[in-house]
Amino acid sequence: MSSRSPTTLLLRDELVGFAKSKVMLVLWVILPLIAIGAYLVLPAELTGQRDMKMSATAFVGLVTSSLAGTVGALMVAVDIVSERNRKVYELFAIRPIRREAIIWAKFVAVFACVTVACLAAMGAGIAVDALRGAPPTTAMLADMGKSILSLVGVIALSAAVGVVFGVLSRTILVAVILILYVGQNLAVVPMLPVYLGWLPDQFWLVMAITAALTGLLVFGAGVKFRRTEL
Domain-by-domain residue ranges, the chain? Predict the structure, then answer.
C-alpha cells in the first residue's frame, strides 16, 4: 500500500497524464525538429552567417517561446472544462482531497511539462550551434539564462490564466476564446509598471511581480473552484 498522500498521487497522475498527451509530444519532439529544420534551410542572412547573427539557439527559443505560453494556457483550461463536463470531479467528493489541490496539481503539471519542453528545444538549438562551430560564449549563456527565466515566467503566468478561464468557463469554446483574445494580453501586465515609467527597468523586479501575480491567479482560481457546484 502506497504511503504517499492523495495530493501527491494526484500531482503525479496529472504530470503523467499531461506528459503523455499528444500536445506534449508535439512540443517535445516535433516542434524542435521543425524549428531546427527551418533554421537550417533559412537564407544565410537570417541564420547567423552574414548580417543578422541569429544563432540556432536564439531561433529555436524564439519559435518555442512564441507558442509555449498559449499552448500551456489552452492545455490546462481545456482539461479543466472537459473533465468538469464529463463529471470527473464528482469522483473526488469521496476522496480526502481539497478541491483547490486539483487546480494546483494541474497548474504545476502543465507548467513543468511545457517548461521542460522549452528547455529541451533550446538544448537542441545549442547542440546545433556547437556542431556548426559556433557554441555560445559565456556572455551569451548569461543572457540566455535571463531569457530562459523570462520564458519560465511567461509560461507560469499563462498557465495561471488558463487555470482561471478553465474554472470560469462552462464550454471549451468559451475558454479558448478568452485565452486567445484576453489571456494573451495579461502576459504583459508585469511589465506595465516599467513601460509606464512607474518603476525602473529591473529584471528581478519584473520576475517578482510575475511570480506574485501567478500565485494570486492560481489561488483565486482554487478558491472559486472550491465554491463552484460541480
Answer: 6-227
